C-alpha cells in the first residue's frame, strides 16, 4: 500500500511538473516593461498632436505676414506684417484663424517651414520600435513562447470569426443599434468641440486688449497655450476624476462660448487675466469631455461592439471642429466690419 501510494505520489508529482506553466518574467522586468510602454504611448500622443497644436498656436502669426514680393518660392526670414483692418476695434487679420481659413497654407509665409514643423513627428517610429514592449514577451512567460506566438498566422478563419471585439462581422442592423446607443455620448462631444473651437479659432483673435504689455500676436499665443495646458491636464486626470454625465461638460462649454461671445460684442471684461482663467477652464472642460467619453464607451459596450463603438465616436471631434470653422469664418468677417 505504501509503495503503491508512493509511486502514485511520484507520478502525480511528475505530471504536475509536466503541466506546470512556464515561469513568468521577474516582477522587476514586468514593471520595467510597464513604464516603457507608458512613456512610449505618452510620447506617441505628444508627437501626434505636436504639429497640429503648433499650427493652431501660430495661426495669427502665419496669417499676419506676407510672402516676400518677386520670387514666390522665397521665404523672407523676417517678413513684413500685413496691415490690419484699422477701421475695426478688433485689429483683425484679413482672414479668420478658423481651420478652413488657414491655407497651407500660408504656412510658408511664416518662419516655420513645413519640413521643420513636421520633423518632430519622425520620432514616432523610434517610440514604437524602441520603447513599446511586445505583449507576448510579458504575458507568455518567455522569449521562446513569444517567438512561437509571433510565427502564428495573422489571419485565421476560425480565430477571426470567434475573436471578441472584432466588428467586421457586425450586420448593418447591429451597427445602427450600436450607433443609436452612442448618441448620448457623441452629441455632447460634438457640442464640446464645436464650442471650444468656435472660441479658439473664431474668438481668440477678437479678444484683444490694447492696454497690456503683450502684443496682439502674443495674446493669441497665450490663449492657445493656456487652452492646451488645460486639455493636457484634464486628459491626464481620469484616475483622479471620472465623469459619467458628459452632457454637463457640453453645457458648461456652450456657456463659455456664449460668455466670451458676449464679451467680444460688449467688451465688459476689464482684464486679460480674467480671459486667461476662462480659457484655461475651457481647456479643462474639453480634455475632460474627450477622455471621459471614450472611457465610458469602453466600459459600457460589449466586447464584440467595442471596436466599432470607439471608431464611431471618433467622428465627434472632427464634426464639431468642421462645423465651428464654417460658422467662425462669416462671424469673423461680420465682427471685423464693425467700427
TrEMBL record:
Entry keyword set: Membrane, Transmembrane, Transmembrane helix, Transport
Pfam name, any one: CLN3
TM ranges: 182-200, 247-266, 272-291
Mode of membrane association: Multi-pass membrane protein
Source organism, top-level taxon: Eukaryota
Keyword Transcription: no
Entry annotated with the keyword Transit peptide: no
Cellular compartment(s): Endomembrane system
Cellular component terms (Gene Ontology): endomembrane system; lysosome; membrane
Biased composition (Polar residues): 83-95
Region listing for Disordered, in residue ranges: 1-31, 67-95
Any GO BP: lysosomal lumen acidification
InterPro entries found in the cross-reference section: Battenin_disease_Cln3, Battenin_disease_Cln3_subgr, MFS_trans_sf
Family: Belongs to the battenin family.
PANTHER family xrefs: BATTENIN (PTHR10981)
Name this protein carries in UniProt: CLN3 lysosomal/endosomal transmembrane protein, battenin
Lineage: Eukaryota, Metazoa, Chordata, Craniata, Vertebrata
Amino acid at each position: 500500500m505504501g509503495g503503491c501510494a508512493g509511486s502514485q505520489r511520484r507520478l502525480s508529482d511528475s505530471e504536475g511538473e509536466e503541466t506546470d506553466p512556464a515561469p513568468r518574467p521577474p516582477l522587476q522586468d514586468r514593471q520595467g516593461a510597464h513604464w516603457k510602454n507608458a512613456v512610449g504611448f505618452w510620447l506617441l500622443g505628444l508627437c501626434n498632436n505636436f504639429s497640429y497644436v503648433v499650427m493652431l498656436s501660430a495661426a495669427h502669426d502665419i496669417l499676419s505676414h506676407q510672402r516676400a514680393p518677386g520670387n514666390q518660392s522665397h521665404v523672407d526670414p523676417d517678413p513684413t506684417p500685413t496691415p490690419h483692418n484699422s477701421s475695426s476695434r478688433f485689429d483683425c487679420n484679413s482672414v479668420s484663424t478658423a481651420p478652413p481659413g488657414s491655407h497651407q497654407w500660408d504656412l510658408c509665409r511664416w518662419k516655420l517651414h513645413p519640413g521643420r514643423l513636421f520633423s518632430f513627428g519622425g520620432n514616432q517610429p523610434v517610440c514604437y520600435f524602441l520603447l513599446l514592449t511586445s505583449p507576448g514577451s510579458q504575458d507568455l512567460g518567455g522569449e521562446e513562447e513569444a517567438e512561437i506566438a509571433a510565427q502564428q498566422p495573422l489571419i485565421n478563419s476560425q480565430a477571426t470569426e470567434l475573436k471578441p471585439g472584432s466588428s467586421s462581422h457586425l450586420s448593418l442592423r447591429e451597427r445602427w443599434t450600436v450607433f443609436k446607443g452612442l448618441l448620448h455620448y457623441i452629441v455632447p462631444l460634438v457640442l464640446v468641440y464645436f464650442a471650444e473651437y468656435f472660441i479658439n479659432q473664431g474668438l481668440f483673435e477678437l479678444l484683444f486688449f490694447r492696454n497690456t504689455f503683450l502684443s496682439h500676436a502674443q495674446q493669441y499665443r497665450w490663449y492657445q497655450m493656456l487652452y492646451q495646458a488645460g486639455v493636457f491636464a484634464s486628459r491626464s486626470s481620469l484616475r483622479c476624476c471620472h465623469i459619467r454625465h458628459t452632457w454637463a461638460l457640453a453645457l458648461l462649454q456652450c456657456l463659455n462660448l456664449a460668455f466670451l461671445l458676449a464679451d467680444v460684442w460688449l467688451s465688459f471684461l476689464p482684464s486679460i487675466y480674467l480671459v486667461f482663467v476662462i480659457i484655461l477652464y475651457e481647456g479643462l472642460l474639453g480634455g475632460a469631455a474627450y477622455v471621459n467619453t471614450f472611457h465610458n464607451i469602453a466600459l459600457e459596450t460589449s466586447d464584440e461592439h467595442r471596436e466599432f463603438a470607439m471608431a464611431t465616436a471618433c467622428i465627434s471631434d472632427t464634426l464639431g471642429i468642421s462645423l465651428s470653422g464654417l460658422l467662425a469664418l462669416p462671424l469673423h468677417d461680420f465682427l471685423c466690419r464693425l467700427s
